[in-house]
Each structure stands twice: as C-alpha cells, then as structure tokens.
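re: ur question from earlier - yeah i can do the single chain one, its not a big deal. heres the input i used so u can compare w yours
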Amino acid sequence: MADRKQVILDQLAESRAYLDQVLDQIGDRWEHQVYSDGLGWSVRQLAAHLADAERGHQFQVMNIAEGKDVIPEDFDIERYNKRVTEKSAELTPSQIREQLALYRQQLNDWLFNLDEALLDQKGRHASLRIMTVEQILNIVVSHERGHGADMAKALNITV
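and the output i got, formated as tokens:
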C-alpha cells in the first residue's frame, strides 16, 4: 500500500482509538452538556454528530474521488447540523457507537482500495472550501480528535 494512504489510515485509527477511550469512560454522563454556545450539545449529541460527520465525509470523499461535486455552493453547515441533531435525538449511546464503527470500517475499506492518485482529486467540502480528498480525510481526523478532547475536558476524563 502506498505511504500516503497508510499515514491516513494510521491517523484515522489513532483518532478513533482516542475517541473510543473517551467514550468508554462516559458511564451515565451521556446527557452532560459539552458546549454552552451554538447548539449546546450534550455528550450524546456530540457523539451522534461525529457519527453523522463520518458518514457525510465518507460520502463527500467517495464522490469527489469519482469527479462528482455533491456539496452545493450555498450549503449551510449550521442549518444542517441543527437538523441532524434533531433527527438523531432518539439514538442511544450503543446505536451511536455502532454507527461510528460501521462508518469507519466503510471508510477504511474504501481508502485501502483507493488509487492513491485520487487523494489529490479536489471538490467542495461542507465548509464550502475546495479541498483534496486527502485534506478532507485529515479533517475527519482533526474533527474527531477535537470533539473527543472537548468531551474529555467537559467530563474530566484523562486519556
């Protein structure tokens, strides 16, 4: 396997291991509020957001690699996140963790088989920036790690 793909796969594994260590220590605190601004997400809502973001990023990179631009120029990430938060309100922590595992496995399988040259394919990310597939995959890593760290801090979890 090419080096760039392996580096990304390793980073994805590291960020997920970190998130899993945080989620393993939540216990009965899934409704603890993590953020006081914006949507004011609880741990459960933030974990559901990460699962949805995993699915969304997967959809974006797969389509961009095929030369398709699936994010409209007027995409509103705040409106989207609010809608998804409402739609995922009934998900249990175990359902969220199952989604996280499933979507990551799908992403890893796709990336493992991807022609490395397609990492340079460009398209619109949900942030509306034009990015390469590789850059979007790096966002998956930093997004997951950042929100995992926010949960850990809010719950005083040491990883």
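The radius of gyration is 16 Å. not sure if urs matches, ping me
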